[in-house]
What does this fold into?
Amino acid sequence: MIKLLFIPFILLFLSSCSSTQKHYNEKHYQRLLCKKLNGKMEYTLKDRTRVDCLTNTYAIEVDFAKKWAESIGQSLYYAQITHKKPAIALIVGKKDTRFVKRVKKVARHCGIELFILDK
It folds into this structure.
């Protein structure tokens, strides 16, 4: 049930070649993922909450790894309201393996698709 999707970020590779590495915000990753999946960004629900990326199949919550627990609740809520499958796109850095292990365990149990985005 868990689908790992490693999205290459050419800009990240190029920026790592310079002396100062850029840090991107959540919206940057959200934009790239939504474009790749042909989704709608910031889809607003009736209660004024917003799905980070809504596709024909998924209601996706995009978040940094340390917010793994929060992303679970949001993805399940958005899926229920939109009648889509719940999904999380977790933005992961080198030191985030403990968060990935945690979210994988819950995602497998709850039927949440998991996309891993390389920071």
Summary: Residues 25-118 form one domain.
